[in-house]
Write a structure and sequence with these properties.
The protein is α+β, with helices and mostly antiparallel strands. 39% of the residues lie in helices and 36% in strands. A hairpin with a 5-residue loop joins strand 3 and strand 4 (100-105). The radius of gyration is 18 Å and the shape is elongated.
Length: 122
């Protein structure tokens, strides 16, 4: 059984969030939650929230189909971080040789998909 969760418009750059996502991709759900709770990265909190949402979605899906689901056997099958809209602020940052750069505010879209271990072996 597969279930997914998507978090959109999360503050922070996708490049930094991908560093955290790479730590948990392919791992078991309990192990991934342990890694995220002990991580000092700022992106770990919204990723943990998204992962918990994916777990809840899997439980909900199992209840609707009268399927017994063991949460401990869930594995993160796919986890991606994509670039959301970039907001260009009016503030100016000094740059080399007398130039000026605009400040940017990066946003991310986080997608996490979990599935049972049984499907993983097939």
């Amino acid at each position: 059984m597969r279930a997914r969760a998507v978090a959109k418009y999360i503050k922070g750059s996708p490049q930094k969030a991908r560093l955290v996502i790479d730590l948990i991709r392919g791992r078991g759900v309990n192990e991934a939650l342990g890694i995220l709770s002990s991580s000092k990265k700022r992106a770990a909190k919204p990723i943990e929230t998204t992962l918990r949402s994916a777990i809840a979605n899997a439980e909900q899906k199992a209840d609707q189909r009268n399927f017994s689901l063991d949460v401990d056997r869930l594995v993160i099958s796919a986890a991606t971080v994509d670039l959301g809209p970039t907001k260009f602020r009016r503030r100016v940052r000094p740059a080399p040789m007398g130039r000026a750069y605009r400040e940017r505010r990066w946003q991310s879209h986080i997608t996490i998909e979990v599935k049972t271990e049984k499907e993983n072996a097939e």
